[in-house]
What we know:
Helix content of chain A: 40-55%
Mean pLDDT of chain B: 77
Distance between the termini of chain A: 36 Å
Shape of chain A: elongated
Distance between the termini of chain B: 24 Å
Mean pLDDT of chain A: 82
Oligomer: heterodimer
Radius of gyration of chain A: 39 Å
Radius of gyration of chain B: 16 Å
Low-confidence stretches of chain A: 1-5, 475-479, 481-491
Amino acid sequence: MSGRGPSRLRAFAARLxxxxxxxxxxxxxxxxxxxxxxxxxxxxxxxxxxxxxAALTARRQFxxxxxxxxxxxxxxxxxSIERVWQDLRYALRTVGRNPAFAAVAITTxxxxxxxxxxxxxxxxxxxxxxxxxxxxxxxxFPRIYDLQQGPEIGRQGYSAxxxxxxxxxxxxxxxxxxxxxxxVRYRHQGGTESLSGAHVTxxxxxxxxxxALHGRVLQPADHEPGAPPVFVLRYKTWMERFGGDVGILDxxxxxxxxxxxxxxxxxxxxxxxxxxxFLPAAALAGRQAPTREYWFLVGRLKxxxxxxxxxxxxxxxxQRLAKTSPDLYPExxxxxxxxxxxxxxxxxxxxxxxxxxxxxxxxxxxCGNVANLLLARATTRERExxxxxxxxxxxxxxxxxxxxxxxxxATGGAAMGILLAWGGLKALVAVLPPRVVPSEAVIAxxxxxxxxxxxxxxxxxxxxxxxxxxxxxxxxxxxxxxxDSAKGTSGGSRGRRLRDALVALExxxxxxxxIGAGLLMRSFVALRDVRLGLQxxxxxxxxxxxxxxxxxxxxxxxAFLRPLLARIKAxxxxxxxxxxxxxxxxxxxxxxxxxxxxPPGASRTMFRQVTEDYxxxxxxxxxxxxxxxxxxxxxxxxxxxxxxxxxxxxxxxDAPLGQRVRLAxxxxxxxxxxxxxxxxxxxxxxxxxxxxRASVEPDVWIPSTVARSVVHMLNVRTSQDPATxxxxxxxxxxxxxxxxxxxxxxxxxxxxxxxxxxxxxxxxLVMLVFASIGLILxxxxxxxxxxxxxxxxxxxxxxxxxxxxxxADVLGTVVSGGLQPIVVGIAMGLTGSVLLGRAxxxxxxxxxxxxxxxxxxxxxxxGTIAAIACWIPARRAARVDPxxxxxxx
Amino acid sequence: MEAxxxxxxxxxxxxxxxxxxxxxxxxxGFGIARRLEQVSRDVLRLNEGTVxxxxxxxxxxxxxxxEWGTSENNRKAKFYAIxxxxxxQLDAETENWERVSSVIRRVLRLQPEGEP
Lengths: 889, 116
């Protein structure tokens, strides 16, 4: 009968409907049959038969009712379990007969699914939903920045009155909260530890919408003046320092000299301000602070307020504030309003996006590979299906068989993909650069993404697995493929064109990945070559935190530092021991600046206070003048060393030595320095003070004894492994003042590694891994497709050779056939990479996205490997014995 | 060749049922069987049960529809009616049948020695 297409679907729907409707249908049908029999019987009785005779005759005329029921069920039900099981067993045998094919298909799918899911999980957890806080995407903070420097850096801490001005002067926020960081010394029997604390304003925990895990959060009453001092602990700190002991709740701890009661422990994902503990602060309104405080302000924007509106309103307020306290604002400044998420993920965002794009490409390559494998195999099996059809197999049956086979492959690939995703995620978490992932983020496998990648991969396998069945169904004449295949030529040119297109696509994508990896690698190498300006090897570093209540004057600080540095210098292997007020590779404090004899402008510089050994300990390079002498430091002489950028920026053309510089911010604060003028006695080569990519800022070094600072970095040069110094230094610090904790002791080289190189290294390594996987997949793809198509042509090749074709001719024909799509793919990949170059350019240092050497090297690498993948099957084909080839079928 | 024979028979039965429903309007299974008997007595020997298989098949294709109603002796019975799609199909099949049977007729005339 004609009209098969739509009515087949209709019939299937009818079956489904009946299966769903259940056994009631059987009875109704039976009724109908019984009624028919009864009517027949009545009729025969009417014709003069006896009841019993009539019943018998009626049955005879009607036929077998059981058989009829069976016919009906066959028409109305879906294939039985037995038949599915039979198909499954058969499909397993078919797949098992060709284990190499199965392994390649399953591995390819698994790699694609695993890599895509693992990477996307990281991106989702780190970038898209890092915070567990209420309306986390509407949490914003303002930053005052110098228009000359751009919005990336600036001031994010505000005095209580500034905070009140921002909050009360605007109608932007649903709610706000502010935090003030303080290092908290916690003394116990084992010694003194330093924890990072945050004073938080009333309502902070309601603001974030998170209840305590144990105990309670801070209540409004805790913030009242005169309330009993309490605090709340962070989960991580609780686990690490107190072993997760619930018994410490309601105990009292002496923190910075004040006994405080622990009232609550927060859940693991609460990590606000990166603090270990949270202390109640009084409301900021009308707060009179003894010294200047810097509160970090966060507001939740009202739902209809945009970041742009917030920026505009806060700018107006800041302009007003700048008039009353001009020293806190650059001359020309802007207000940047950043989201909390942006501030945390900003530095690594570009890397993660690159990786995301890479993983997408990888998934496409993997799916393309599987598609190609299945299509190639399908061509060789066309004959099998023609034979089956000729022997009476229904088209449905063949489709079902293929479906089950594809499902087996897809299931295998999915299982492997899930395993790889799980393992890959663990590996990724291990190599993620530290401190770039917000502490609130929990990196876990993302189930929806896993589902989507699984669906894509399984669908690819199913669609491409079914292709031969759909293909053969279009063929009217069933014996066609039988004849075609008997000729031993390659399967139809259309199938071949599709396979070639897929190979070209895969090659193009893989080349894009390779070029990306190459560019990132070159820029990583370039970053490695960036001169730091100091030598971080063999330097021990740690932070000293002095109790502010006992170290009030500069002299008190000096009285601690001097003997400590002398003791450390006396340790075996130590050459120099120094202290400074800023990390060796960090920027120092920022200050307004003036040079004697020049008009005071808006000049700014960074500065740090150091002891005399600092320059030798870190091996800074002097371009002119001298380092500080011991007397310079002991007598707190007004001398300064500046960097080359300072000289170039502010003293162009003048001889720097002997010039006098005023560092304005020293004249303010808790222990002001009167007339903060310094004479330049030395010029050093630039030391990176804004990271590896940003240009170096003007920098000034002055003696540590000039002004009081309760935070000092130790930098100690030793001939041994710096890490071995830790316990000796800790002992000396404790011997000098037992109340001073040693924070974060370690190698300066490690610090530089983590802080400067970790993110680019991460991007480059992940990209390299992807490019390698992509390359392997493409190689396997090219190889297997060509192997299949040459295997099909064995007979044709045999005939050619029998007719006089030589080894080289055959080799050439096969290789050039295989290389064609590869060449096309390389051209596409190069074009694509040039077009995509802009996307990656922000991450590149010292190399352009159109770097010819990288492009050429990547293309050459891919071309060579692909050529080898072509050559192996070609050689095999060319070695065919014509006699065997002709006899084979 | 068993299958081919039943194929032809099946197709013919379907065609006959469609034609019956087209000519007489809605009927139940028994009625169809009677009509077929009446028309083809002694020529076609038919298991009346196969009528029901054919009815189901035709229903699946959407060529006939079925509805529960009351039979002449006041029993519940299922009544079958031809659909618009069924009529189209009937026209096509009738034309096809006539073409095929005329060919067969011609062929049989050409070879009179084939039959006694």
